Amino acid sequence: MTLLSVQAARERILSQFEKVETEILPLSQAAGRILAVDVYSPNDLPPFDNSSVDGFAVIADDLKKATADSPAVLKVVADIRAGSVPDRSISRGQAARIMTGAVLPDGANAVIMIEDTDSEYGRSETPLPSEVKSFRSIAESDNIRPRGMDIKNGLKVLSAGDPLRPQAVGLLAMMGVGRVEVYRKPLVALFSSGDELIPIDRPPQPGKIRDSNSYILSALLAETGCATAFLGIAPDSISGIRQLLDHAVDMHADLIISSAGVSVGAFDYLKEIIQSDGALDFWRVNMRPGKPLAFGEYRGIRFIGLPGNPVSAFVGFQVLVRPALGRLAGLRAVNPFKVPVRLAEGVESDGRESYLRAIVNEQDGVLTAKLTGHQGSGNLLSLVQANALLIIPAGVKSLAIGAQTEAWLL
Ligand code: AMP
Ligand code: MG
């Protein structure tokens, strides 16, 4: 049987996802959201010519011959604090004390740093000297940040689909954008399934294991900016699973994500339920780990059934769910960041597109990859120790030491 390729699976999933609606938030609550509009600067930044240092605003020509042994002596005629507006201009032979960020006075065309003068390092009480000696010369426009140097009025500074990283939030603040249109958070209903699962606060019991997938997946969902409703653990029964699926429908989730129960086991009911009350698009992908991965819809809500083994659930999420959530959340770029790496050891695969847990290090300017341990899909420790997923393309069964391939940095 030919399995669906990872690429085809990703495209089939993506084709079913559109951006959610937008909402308007105060800027203070917008960090981490995805911007829904293009933003153009409403003014020049900086808004006025200002000093980039604490020092003295001068006319560069006056300092032409200044040296440590023969300093230029200027008359200090004004004191310009940050936040104030100079009340006079300066002319030849004159200087104005000026603080970082303060408005440059008319007449001045450079600022000499306080460190290059005989002036004391400032404290608020340091009195304004009547004269200042400059121990060096200076070029015109030195230490001046001219109006519009960083951003010209009307420049497009952010685009719809950009994530509002802390630096972008700062930029919006700089432009006085107090309320911003962003996409709302997608709501994902999440559940685990399996008779062997117990919540982590229950005492261990024979034959049972703790539900770790819901923790992995909740954390991944938080990282991708989704709101998550964890619905609990479904038993391996049709009615138990259906109850949680119906709960997800009632809360109008944008997507239902489950783990386990989508393989070929005797009690793997999920596919059957999806088929009878919705539609099953596919349930097997040519990847390792993560082959049993189901996609479809249940009563009109998109459904992704991840594999049960924790590493498979993680990899399935990264490779197939993350791009879809990016699209849903309004992100412009949904492709993962991959880098070329050289293998520090030979690796084997089974011909499926493989995502192996690896450490990528720089060695003599080359990124080099080494596996972190046995690649059993239940071995979460080897994933914890990894900083990358090493990608072995479909159809390749072994790669020799020194071979080139790609890695996805985590
Ligand atoms: P299944 O897909 O139901 O055949 O499960 C595959 C493997 O994943 C089994 O060993 C399960 O015990 C394990 N598993 C399933 N769900 C979870 C979970 N939520 N947390 C940890 N392991 C799980
Ligand atoms: Mg099971």
The main sheet orders its strands as: 15-12-16-20-19-17
Q: Ranges with pLDDT <50 over ≥5 residues? A: none
Please count the helical segments: 7
Mean pLDDT: 96
The outline comes out as: elongated
* Main pleated sheet: 6 strands, mixed
Task: Return Rg in Å.
Answer: 31 Å
Q: What percent strand?
A: 25-35%
State the distance separating the first and last CA atoms: 32 Å
Q: What share of residues is helical?
A: 10-25%
Helix-strand category: alpha/beta
Bound molecules: adenosine monophosphate, magnesium ion
What can you tell me about this protein's structure?
This protein has 410 residues and is α/β, with parallel strands linked by helices. The chain is built from 7 helices and 27 strands. The protein has a 6-stranded mixed sheet with strand order 15-12-16-20-19-17, with helices on both faces. A 5-stranded mixed sheet has the order 7-4-6-5-8, with no helix packed on it. It has a 5-stranded mixed barrel with strand order 21-24-23-25-27. Strand 23 (353-363) and strand 24 form a beta hairpin. Helix 1 crosses helix 6. The chain is elongated. The model has no long low-confidence stretch (mean pLDDT 96). Adenosine monophosphate binds next to helix 3.
